[in-house]
């Protein structure tokens, strides 16, 4: 008996492959169909020959209307996309049918390589693909910050694309990731179980290996669509599958793949992958975690969390900002935020502040509030209808957060890393009133232990802290402001894009081809 053959070339949409090494053969298979097939990083067995493995099955449809063979064929039909050869070619390529970039021999040649061959160097913008997912607002905010920094620093030399990889380039149910995340976060115990249960390497690596079986082809098509020279992941679930595809196609040395960690302290192990060109860490704590995960020192850079470039620029004087926002020019101000969706105990905290910041003895306010309700229109209307005894300005969704922060003296917010980083740049003492279990849990001690703020979930306690800061404990407010400025890294996003530019510059211009 001849052993089964292993091949990475031809296609068989009916061949069944198991990641665990099981092989199936059947006399009922149509042997006219090519029997060896391609799927990157796996072994495949020719069903025309008896496999040289112990776990083999012989399938037959004799006397059965619904045979095991039919089940396997139906399963193969569902995942046959993973058995087709994907001609991946990146780095400024064109995939249109009329201008595909393929040579007559079937290989792909990029525009840069074509120019080198012809003795010319075309002026083609480099392409940056940023992978993110709308599981919380911080990932998109970091992606937008990187895109804005590329535009500001390099203009038309780079084209930057942002894609929600799971939503836009995976089939159901994988494209429901943001909805699933929101559901889990709203039911905190479920999210906590999911976060910590998936942390061991053996668990999440197995999950990614299994998931890639179903989504690899669609993800590869998505990557090919953008034709990137640089891939930047700003999400913990955007490393493993894309890197698996790039490694299988021999493109790891041709495409710069980097990770920008957007968690300040505690972070999930899926952030770290040994095959990345660079891992940008926002803090020394995250850098230590990256090192423990197996990344080498040249791969790790500690630049800080990327925030919008507008935060790097000096803001206008506080009096001018307050005038434009409709605020009192003289009273100290607290900024109360609930994220983009206006969630959390905003109303209860605002009412408690309204009482605590009013001096009953002198019959006058000792502070004012700027409330950002995000997209929560009902909350905006409710707070605007309150008869406040102190100046309270209520806003909906705002785009110039740097001006809102610049107009205030402290901030109340949940422990989102982006907001914390922005507040530190503005020198705002921070009161954290909540956090998401897992990735945000470490942000609380990061703020408190570095003397940048305090933590409390109680609206009454929070209002008392603010009233003390605006009264007898003003020195504490000033000290915390200095500590926040000390930890701030306002130029992080610019350091990241310049390092990415240098990585691309160092890469040799070589033909980006996919041989048959």
List the SSEs and their pairings.
Elements: E1 23-25, E2 56-58, H1 68-79, H2 111-118, E3 126-132, H3 138-154, E4 158-164, H4 165-169, H5 177-186, H6 188-197, H7 201-226, E5 230-233, H8 240-248, E6 256-260, E7 278-281, H9 284-292, E8 300-302, H10 318-325, E9 333-337, H11 346-356, E10 358-359, E11 364-365, E12 368-372, H12 377-384, E13 392-395, H13 401-406, E14 410-413, H14 417-425, E15 430-432, H15 443-449, E16 453-455, H16 459-469, H17 474-487, H18 492-506
Parallel strand pairs: 1-2, 3-4, 3-5, 5-6, 6-7, 7-8, 9-12, 9-14, 12-13, 14-15, 15-16
Antiparallel strand pairs: 10-11
Helix pairs in contact: 3-18, 5-6, 7-8, 11-16
Q: What does this 3D model show about the protein?
A:
- This protein is an alpha/beta fold and 516 residues long.
- Helices cover 38% and strands 12% of the residues.
- The protein is built from 18 helices and 16 strands.
- Strands 4-3-5-6-7-8 form a six-stranded parallel β-sheet, with helices on both faces. The protein has a six-stranded parallel β-sheet with strand order 13-12-9-14-15-16, sandwiched between helices.
- Helix 5 crosses helix 6 and helix 7 (201-226) packs across helix 8.
- The longest helix has 26 residues, at 201-226.
- It starts with 22 loop residues before the first strand and ends in a 10-residue tail after the last helix.
- The model is unreliable at 1-66, 78-111, 113-121 and 510-516 (pLDDT under 50).
Q: What attributes characterize this protein structure?
A:
516 residues; alpha/beta; six-stranded parallel beta sheet
């Amino acid at each position: 008996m001849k052993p089964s053959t292993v091949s990475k070339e031809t296609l068989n949409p009916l061949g069944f492959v198991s990641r665990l090494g099981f092989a199936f053969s059947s006399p009922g298979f149509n042997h006219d169909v090519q029997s060896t097939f391609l799927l990157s990083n796996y072994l495949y067995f020719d069903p025309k020959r008896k496999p040289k493995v112990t776990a083999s099955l012989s399938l037959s449809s004799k006397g059965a209307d619904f045979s095991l063979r039919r089940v396997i064929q139906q399963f193969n039909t569902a995942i046959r996309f993973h058995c087709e050869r994907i001609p991946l070619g990146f780095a400024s390529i064109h995939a249109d049918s009329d201008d595909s970039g393929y040579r007559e021999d079937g290989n792909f040649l990029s525009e840069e390589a074509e120019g080198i061959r012809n003795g010319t160097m075309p002026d083609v913008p480099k392409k940056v693909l940023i992978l993110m997912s709308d599981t919380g607002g911080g990932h998109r905010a970091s992606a937008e910050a990187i895109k804005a920094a590329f535009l500001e620093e390099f203009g038309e030399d780079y084209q930057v694309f942002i894609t929600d990889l799971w939503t836009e380039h995976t089939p159901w149910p994988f494209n429901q990731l943001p909805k699933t995340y929101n559901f889990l976060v709203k039911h905190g115990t479920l999210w906590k179980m999911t976060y910590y249960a998936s942390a061991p390497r053996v668990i999440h690596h197995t999950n990614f290996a299994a998931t890639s079986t179903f989504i690899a082809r669609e993800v590869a098509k998505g990557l090919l669509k953008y034709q990137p020279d640089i891939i930047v992941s700003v999400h913990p679930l955007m490393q493993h599958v894309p890197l698996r595809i790039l490694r299988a196609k021999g493109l790891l040395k041709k495409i710069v793949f980097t990770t920008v960690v957007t968690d300040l302290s505690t972070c999930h192990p899926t952030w770290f992958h040994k095959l990345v060109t660079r891992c940008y860490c926002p803090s020394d704590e995250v850098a230590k975690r990256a090192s423990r995960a197996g990344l080498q020192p040249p791969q790790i850079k500690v630049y800080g969390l990327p925030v919008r470039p507008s935060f790097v620029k000096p803001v206008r004087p506080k009096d001018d900002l307050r005038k434009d926002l409709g605020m009192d020019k003289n009273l100290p101000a607290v900024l109360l935020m609930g994220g983009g969706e206006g969630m959390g105990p905003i109303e209860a905290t605002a009412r408690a502040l309204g009482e605590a910041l009013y001096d009953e003895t002198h019959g006058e306010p000792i502070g004012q509030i700027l409330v950002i309700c995000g997209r929560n229109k009902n909350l905006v209307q409710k707070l605007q209808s309150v008869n406040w005894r102190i100046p309270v300005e209520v806003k909906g969704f705002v785009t110039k957060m740097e001006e809102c922060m610049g107009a205030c003296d402290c901030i109340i917010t949940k422990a989102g890393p982006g907001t914390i980083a922005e507040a530190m740049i503005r020198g705002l003492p921070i009161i954290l009133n909540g956090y998401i279990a897992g990735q945000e849990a470490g942000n609380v001690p990061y703020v408190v232990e570095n003397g940048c703020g305090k933590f409390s979930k109680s609206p009454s306690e929070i209002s008392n802290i603010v009233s003390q800061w605006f009264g007898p404990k003003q020195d504490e407010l000033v000290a915390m402001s200095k500590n926040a400025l000390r930890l701030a890294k306002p130029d992080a996003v610019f350091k990241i894009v310049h390092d990415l530019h240098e990585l691309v510059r160092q890469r040799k211009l070589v033909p980006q081809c996919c041989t048959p």
